[in-house]
Amino acid sequence: MKQWTRLLVFAVFVAAVTFIALAQTTPKASDEQALIALDKKWTAAELRLNDEDRKTIDGIVAADYTGITPFGEVQDKAKYMAALAHTDDTDVADEYVVHFYDAGKLAVMTHRGTVNGKPTYRSTHVWMKQGNSWQLIQNHVSNIGEPPTTPATPATPATPVTTPSPVKPPTP
Fold it and tell me: Which one of 94, 117, 150, 164 is separated from 101 by 20 to 30 angstroms, measured CA to CA?
């Protein structure tokens, strides 16, 4: 009887662990596609920037947002929103890579941005899932510049040549 009780307790334990593991949220391909679509919606709103677009951006960007501009300036949400300005530029993002963490509640996205037909920047976004919607909590943008030219190898300073002092033969 004790064996059956132990076996039953073990089976219940295994079932509970399995249920808990399956119940945890895991990211799906649809989450990745939703984030990419949200990023494109955000970019389009930044470019057009009418009153409705400002509302869209306000909903996408979290209250505790922190952003780093291509010039190294740190912006909170208020500073970011105040700096927005309409532009006729085109901005197309590609090369998306999205990684999920914390059982699918946190995502790190990177992509390249091409402005007016020229690859211009790389961007890293950190997104947090709040209920069923995503919010941008951090953004970092780096300009893509020309690769640095390889500087000429600096001349190695010559090793000073020392002349050994003459050795005097020992005196008898």
Answer: 94
